[in-house]
Amino acid sequence: MREELLPPAPVLPSRRHLLSIGDLTALDVERLLDTARSFELSLEREVKKLPTLRGRTVVNVFYESSTRTSASFELAAKRLSADTLSIRAAGSSVDKGESLKDTALTLGAYEPDVIVIRHPQIGAPHLVARLTRARIVNAGDGTHQHPTQALLDLHALRGAFGRLEGLHVAIVGDVSHSRVARSLVQALALVGAHVTLVGPATLIPRGIEALGCEIAHEIEAIGAADVVYVLRLQHERMQAGASFVPSLREYTARWGITPARLRPGQRVMHPGPMNRGVEIDPRVADAPDALIEAQVRAGLVVRMAVLYDLLTTSPAGVREASAAEVA
Amino acid sequence: MLVARPGPGADLVVRGARVLDPVERIDAVLDVVVDGGVISALEPPGARLDNGHRSIDGRGLVLAPAFVDPHVHLRTPGREDEETIASGTRAAAAGGFCAILAMPNTDPVVDSAAVLGALVETARAEAVIPVGHLAAITRGQEGAQLAELGELADGGAVGFSDDGRPVVSAGLLRRALQYAAATGRRLALHCEEPSLSRDGQVHEGTVSAELGFAPYPSVAESLMVERDLALAAYEGQPLHLLHLSARGSVEALRAAQERGVEASAEVTPHHLCLTDEAVRTLDPNRKMNPPLRAEADRAALLEALRDGTISSIASDHAPHARHEKEVPFEAAPFGVTGLETAFAALYTALVEPGLLALETLLERLSHGPARVYGLEPPRVAPGARANLVLLDLERRWRVEERGFRSLSANSWLLGESLRGAVRLTVADGRVAFPG
To answer: How many structural domains compose chain A?
Structure first.
């Protein structure tokens, strides 16, 4: 009986939007990565622009600063020949106090096919999904989810290792405040990789092990990993009242990723923007076998794949017709 | 002091209902006669065929003491767009309540005899059922200086609370306990250690970890409960604990009661029916303070309600304007409405599946909360003021936004189908619902 009082069926059919990695199945991830790979091959053949989404409209709304994500979404939409419109909170009606609801209704009135949204508050993309008919891509909501980052990380990993299943990834640092870490842990679990979260208990959320990862507090725990994924440590984490770490100096001394802490063959990733000399030693960041640039490159093709997938996968049947255009 | 719009007492007879009053130990099919607002007789069905009174067919229905809600936010003064005394009492009557107590965290705060006096006047003009008001413990609920508790008690305050906020200073709370003793009114405490709940949005556990919410751990409540109980024990004064949510709080309360501390407590329907799993939809109508907690917490609350450790059910009816809840979860204010759904939610979730006896539910909705604040408990007995609710336990209904009498619709039950409907509410001798 209690079940009847619990949330009714999910408000959002899972594949209409990309709000969370939790919306995806392993098959969805595989299909998205395969699509990204085929886009990668077509771009290598110097066909920079595909006609696939001609006549479609993609709106990017960014309530937080972003370089990589906003640039790659815009470029991804353009490479697929969609019309794009990019709006930043600064300089828009948001500055005049317009609510997210009214902004969503305004943008919805132009009937875009996709709205890509980044917002500092958890649940913002879900609200927009309830208020408009567009498909919604979550480009980061607060400390909740950043699903396209996790997908591009998988793409970069698959490119480097040729596989995902069985890989061991150590995620080091401020997991508590990281939407990247949450999406990545879920995504790695979907593809059968093994995850260890490493950092002081102040930065690892209590209960996160339910996502199927291990937790370690000593930096030595990265030794067994194939990949060391370094998270950004934000300066405000040690302000008075917060005290997640005593000082950046101590954090760097204990959990900073330096050449000495890595063993040969270990690959290093970072979602950016980096605090060089804090969570990551510049020599590690610039090492030729770091995957950080591969991540950035993966961003474009993975976001192309996400837009393509959302606009062609459902209703069923449309996808087969369009797939031919990619090949 | 409870106040309502004045009016003549009703003459009516409810015929053939199953009369259920767990405190008076009545469970029988009877006709209940009300003369001039007072219960004059309980008789075998059909004993007196026609006395000229309005006759209400109660066959197949349950007639019980009407409910008392010890914790309601009427948003008056200050946010009359969200609720007024008129709309809030109409909503309460529709929910089967014959009396409600309003919290003082309004704008301005009810912390002076002048503000309280104006509220009492408004209630006398527009309350369709009796309303009592709690007044603030500290001026402006700022936790720095005591409010004028004596004058507030004289002005009609039924108790004192800084609800919405804890009294952070242990020293000030001690003074409040000492000083309130002279007023004969109980302190009702919102237990939250702010350095632990800081910015917290969702119960600390697997759900908050997965969704990325700033965590609001259960120890933030139970630690403050332990502190407040220790002060009450030391001073030998009673206190009431508002909206308990955590197992640790229940354990501390039970232990204090066993040591002889005069501590009462309340629990809300949402904490009895839902866990933090319900937050996964990111629906702002699942956001409240204290937050929905884990299954072990919910089970401990239910057990404490069953065994009487927790004596009262409180809706913590907290209306919010639509535009304030139609925002991302993280930006939404805490609180949900509950006056019109409290009985049906608990009947559906707990009584129907056999987890709670109907008699216990009725007692905790009526006699239990009345006792906390020393109010005359509603009862079905000759000579008592008529405070009656007629319940249809078979009726299924759907919770819909347009069905509310409350001015706000931020219910955690929107779209749900519930069993158990209120057919009639008699409050202080008058028919308050249907009105």
So the answer is: 2
